[in-house]
């Protein structure tokens, strides 16, 4: 007998809705899905595959540096490991995993049935995957990128790096930049146009604010690094001279382009991580977030100010002192909105009834690590201090406290918090707490001594060092801490694997959360909401009474609010500020076209890499045909 879901106007069978919304089974469904939840999960899984691969690379590097004059790996191998570790963690883990959580959670938090551009969403994932696979192929052919994850010219010009190593990096970064940029467009349009009725901008969850701020930063920052990598490849493959001074180019231009992305990138990662924390702390403190308006304003302020700090990476390049003084001041000012959030989190817990569940422990760990990372960030924004510690292990310590501690800890907290929603199974709390403490102790053992090593003069990016410099014991401690941190991350991986089979059933709302994703089953149905919820506060699930749902109206716009919208594969479009229904979005059916276009671009990358015109033309034709067909086929059955 068919089960039904009551909506107050119709009884719709789940079987009918599943038949309308489900993907094809097996490989065909895998390649054609445009469901934001499946795409979000794929982002998360793929990014974590790169995370653990990058972690193994880091452990190999630490094995080399554990003692003086080691010969675990050769200098050439170390350069490749160093380059790929940074590239994988920045380009293939941190940004994509946050995009994965955004993909999965944004429509659920906004009360809609999918993203604004579902096919573009799938395309973004396939480009990310193929870019990562492309860069990993460099290991198979024995030519991993070896010019540093920053790829400074002229060291990465053909004159000094004649093999294809850095071509893997340049082409891969160009195409992963395309993925990130089109994903950001999707986040922006979804946030402004697909919110549930009543969810005005001052009622959006803070995580939505953080993803929106991140998306705007991506739109302005990522094209700079995409351009930088593209110009490097033009110099390398087609003998242009953008960065060749003898022919009128400028090597410093590359650093400006790279760091115009590079420092906003820190906040592109940090802002969504703080958004996660701002969602978790209120739930485990059992009270609303203190200073909601201030926190949302701080996120937007960080997005703006972050574009005025890139030159503090270039204080040693000989730029005019007046210009550097400006960027030094802005680099200190950006600590203010970050501090606003910090005090809001403290105020939220101050009179709350705090539950020290695993997600909350990761949030507390984040607060302590972020505090130290923020302090050292202000330190390196001061010109004399930056000149003293420039290119030393002090800088390595600082950015790991920011990019690892202040981003990875919220991500792991989010795993324990939202994975029950995604899988329907709870992770083991005891094992989660062991994982947290192992990671927290290991992290600080690994990275705090690096501050001291930097002050003692140990330069970054070195393959080995001599004994008697005072670095031996500290490097041993760093390596032990790195191994401990890796063990902690492995415990969470095991916890996730075990929970998929033996974890307790989560139910719709295991944490007694306040936002809309907790109002539906775990895992959510393919269509998210049979009827669109009506929002009248910032914490709709903490209000007295049951959550209200819309019913289908008589006109085209309001009809899609209720169960008819789910049956018609539609979702309502609402106004930008006050979220009033004014149009209808026809959600497309599953399609192979994003995958086809992604394959075409992947083949084009291979053609450019090996200088094979025929292969490149095949890739261009494949991508072009896919795009034209995509443009022509706007709706209908699977194609």
Describe the biggest sheet? 2 strands, antiparallel
Low-confidence parts lasting 5 or more residues at pLDDT below 50? 1-8
The ordered H/E elements are EEHHHHHHHHHHHHHHHHHHEEHH
- Number of DSSP helical runs: 20
Description:
This protein is mainly alpha-helical and 639 residues long. 64% of the residues lie in helices and 3% in strands. The chain is built from 20 helices and 4 strands. Strands 1-2 form a two-stranded antiparallel sheet. A two-stranded antiparallel ribbon has the order 3-4. Strand 3 (570-574) and strand 4 (581-586) form a beta hairpin. It starts with a strand and ends in a 7-residue tail after the last helix.
List the helices and strands and how they pair.
Blueprint lengths: L3 E3 L4 E3 H8 L4 H7 L3 H30 L9 H36 L7 H23 L24 H29 L12 H33 L12 H35 L6 H14 L15 H13 L1 H16 L7 H23 L2 H7 L3 H31 L5 H27 L16 H31 L53 H4 L3 H5 L2 E5 L6 E6 L6 H18 L2 H20 L7
Antiparallel strand pairs: 1-2, 3-4
Helix pairs in contact: 3-4, 3-5, 3-16, 4-6, 4-14, 5-6, 5-19, 6-7, 6-19, 7-8, 7-9, 8-11, 8-14, 9-11, 12-14, 12-15, 14-15, 15-16, 19-20
